[in-house]
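Attaching the record inline, Q. Sequence:
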Amino acid sequence: MTTSTKHMPVVAAIPNYNMGHHLRLLLPQVLERGYDRVYVLDDGSTDDSVDVVNSFNGDVHLVRAPQNQGCTANRNQIIDHVGDDELIHFIDADMDLPTPEAAAVAREVMARYADLGVGAVGGLVSRVDGSQEPYNYGPVFSVKTMLTSIPPLVDRVKERPMLARAVRLLGTPAANKWPDILEAPRPAEAYWLHEGNMLIYSGVFKAIGGYDPKMRNHGAQDIAIRLEKHGVRRYFDPSIEVVHHYIDVRGKKRRIQQAESIRYLINKHGYRFVLRGK
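Structure, as predicted:
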């Protein structure tokens, strides 16, 4: 697997909904990073996203849903456009991609973990101010880990190191399952990964049927549960970095969709799993 991974085609898959303005900035960056193919997965945008993609004269492939179907179903559009032995790099449309030769780095990263049975790797998601997002990866979805979800609290007081460290320690032992945003990011085994910057083998993605299209939020947790059941390990590695611009196209719908997705996730995997994490 390591040898084949080093020569595996790498496909950039960019889910998009009404982010045409930022696509104009992101796509030139992606096209310079050595990907074998670049796709924009459009979720029925009503802005100028289609015109933006078409302006690249065929260098960027447009895959368009006839109507908005949600972020998870949108990501699944890549399935029909990749073979069984390719590497998919999901990059959200409101990102910048500063990593030089990102496609080559992607191959190297996946080869690094191939012998460990790793099928998906999450990269570093940073903010415009240079800080790392507190949710680059996380532990199994359960009551225990959600109630000790320390990252947002640490993030709020990160400019006060002593207080931030004290807050993080309050979350022990669950805190060590989350990124330590007070330290430089380093590789770590993870349960779920930030889907805005994620590498996954196409064969693995196809085998589990992609994302659950019924979930408009928390798809990262659901796909991690299914990967775990298939014996596919996940890792976080900061070698590939994206910078998140936080373009919100859902507005007030976001909180409603988050609540609905949590209820669906619990019903799908059972209360025992959510209560015990297994």
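The chain has one domain: 2-276. The first strand starts at residue 10 and ends at 16.

More tomorrow.
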